[in-house]
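[User]
Protein folding is very new to me. Any chance you could explain this protein sequence and its C-alpha cells? I have pasted everything here:
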Amino acid sequence: MADDDQEEGAEAAAPKGKRKLIIMGGAAALVLLLAGGGWFFFMRGPAKEVQAVAPPPKPPVFLDVPEVLVNLSNAPGERVQYLKVRVVLEVKDQPLSAQIAPTMPRVTDLFQTYLRELRPADLNGSVGLFRLKEELTRRVNAAISPNQVNAVLFKEIVIQ
C-alpha cells in the first residue's frame, strides 16, 4: 500500500511540475516578445522621411492710417482728456494694400467715431488696449469687406 501511495503522489506531482514548466516557458516567451518589440520601437534608427520644402512665407505689408486725435467722453465737470492714436494695418500682400488705400477715409471716420465714445477708464491696462485693438480690427474689416486685415498694430498711444 505504501507503494501505491507513492505512485499516486508521483503522478499528482507530475502534472503540477508540467504546469509550472509551461508557465515558466510562457513567461520566457513573453519576455522575449516584449524585448523584441522594445528593440523595434526604441533601438532602430529614425525613419527616413522626405519632407517637401515649403516656400518661405511672404512678409506682411503694413499700411499707415493717418493719426487720430480725439477728446474722450467724460462726465460733466471732469477735466477734458485727449487720445492720440497712430496705427498701422497689417495686410497679407501688396495688391490688398492697394485695394484698401481708397477706403482709408472710411476707416479714419470709423476710428474717429468709435474713439470719441471711449472713456479714460476703457483704456486702463493691457486689457483695455487689447480690447481697443480687437474693436478697431473688427471695424476696419467691416469697412473694407470683403477684404480683411490681419491686425491693427499700435505705433503710438497717448492719453493726456
